[in-house]
Amino acid sequence: MAVWDDLVGQERVVEQLTAAARAAGATIEAGRGAAPAEGANASLMTHAWLFTGPPGAGQVTAARAFAAALQCTSPDLALGGTPGCGFCDGCHTVLAGSHADVKYVRTDGLSIGVGDMRDLVMRASSYPTGGRWSVILVDAAHRLTEAAANALLKGVEEPSPRTVWLLCAPSVQDVLPTIRSRCRLLVLRTPAADAVADTLVRRDGVDPETARLAALAGQGDIERSRRLAVDEQARTRRAEVLRIPLEVADIGGCLTAAQRLVDTAKADAEALAETQDAKETDDLKAAYGAAEGSKAPRGMAGAVKELEKRQKSRATRTRRETLGVALLDLLGFYRDVLAIQLGSTGVLANEDQRQALNRVAQAGPAESTLRRIEAVLACRTALDRNVDPLLAVEAMTVALRAG
Q1: Nearest of 148, 97, 155 to residue 125 by alpha carbon
Q2: How far apart are CA 174 and CA 304, in angstroms?
């Protein structure tokens, strides 16, 4: 299977990246004294790329596929084959995350610090050890602190001839102008529901009707659609969220719904902590050679404290992401309500909730629905500004009741 097969509904992006990977290969061959391949255009390749698009569109998937194509060593390339075969050692190790010259940067916390970025810039100044290119893939580049972004700018401004930066962010506005001006921009689009459903049927063995409903409910987010199709717990939680518009008839219902939503997010964070935090702590102590009941080795206390800080940050991010998914579901619900009120004949994202949608649509005018959509968006903004989650969600549910 080619590395591009995981990109759903992104034909234009695949075409551009394939051409760039072919040009990158021609550059290497030219450096070895070989004649450039037919159709190769060196201007199609550059040292820094910025992948943007809506949530779930596949920015990281596209960047990883491009990294694999850059390291592809398929013998078919000499015959004009497409880079990114998916079977050679270069492609396989990149996709498995074990390629020595591909660094994948992702934070479980709320931000990427300057220390980590300085190490990457130092690494970027050297030539690849064994592969064709040294590739640094930064997931969530919008989470860089100001100091980290300035450090990244240094690396992007003065790249090594064989280094490629791949940055992923929700939108171009989330990246410093000085950085984005030095990157080639690729904007991924929201994949069509039919394309997502077809992928779920072919790759995950989901029955067509379940795949169709999951693809609609996922609203273009491929991973979210997959979870809804295969995970009963994900479907149950979505159903609980979509009950909220029917439960905010009085203040008591508003507060109860808000508390349940926040408790669910907290439970997700605690479940993640149970599976990861203890293992990380044990692994760290083992690395320091700490024996049970003995005095902690020198330096271990500081390392444990730093690990606990990262774990706390990860728990906060998990809570926010869980609440973010719930708010997206609510937005989709009220958007469908508005579509019904305005007489739209388009496909609804929450087709399986048709009865609830009709009930809410008949209970008030379109203006009230618009105000409820604004309330959900205001809650998202409040959470981004570190407002206490319970207060933010309670304010939202009360506003949903007022309409």
Answers
A1: 155
A2: 32
For residue 73, give the 3-state DSSP assignment. coil
Over 47-62, what HEC string results?
A: CEEEEECCCCCCHHHH
Q: Which residues contact 197 (CB under 8 A, 6 or more apart)?
A: 208, 211, 212, 214, 215, 225
Burial label for 8, CB within 10 Å (0-12, 13-18, 19+), is buried
The number of helices, as runs of H, and strands, as runs of E, in the chain is: 16, 5
Q: Which residue in the block uniquely carries the two structure tokens 């100091």? A: 147
CA distance linking residue 186 with residue 165, whole number of Å:
13
Cβ burial, residue 62 (10 Å; 0-12/13-18/19+)? buried
In 3D, which of 134, 122, 133, 3 has the Cα closest to residue 62? 3
Dihedral sign of CA atoms 251, 254, 255, 257 in order: positive
| Residues 139-169: b if buried by 16+ CB within 10 A, e if exposed | bbbbbbeeebbebbbebbeebbebbbbbbbb
| pTM of structure | 0.81
Tell me if 379 sits within 8 A of 258, measured CB to CB.
no
Q: Where are the alpha helices (DSSP H) in 55-113?
A: 59-70, 89-96
Cα–Cα distance, 198 to 206 (Å, whole number): 9
Helix (H, G, I), strand (E, B) or coil at 324: helix
How many whole angstroms separate alpha carbon 230 and alpha carbon 207? 10
Report the b/e string of 279-288 with b at 16+ CB within 10 A. Answer: ebeeeebeee
CA distances from 283 to 52, 286, 304, 337, 365 (A): 35, 5, 11, 50, 58
pLDDT in tens, the chain (403 residues): 688 988 888 999 999 999 999 988 887 776 554 444 454 555 688 899 999 998 888 899 999 999 999 999 888 887 778 899 989 999 999 999 889 899 988 876 677 888 878 888 887 777 788 768 999 999 888 888 888 888 888 888 877 888 999 999 999 988 888 898 999 999 999 898 999 999 999 988 999 999 999 999 998 888 889 999 998 888 988 999 999 999 998 999 999 999 998 888 888 777 766 667 777 777 777 777 776 666 777 777 787 787 777 777 777 777 888 898 899 999 999 999 999 999 988 889 999 999 999 999 999 999 999 999 999 999 999 998 889 999 999 999 999 998 8
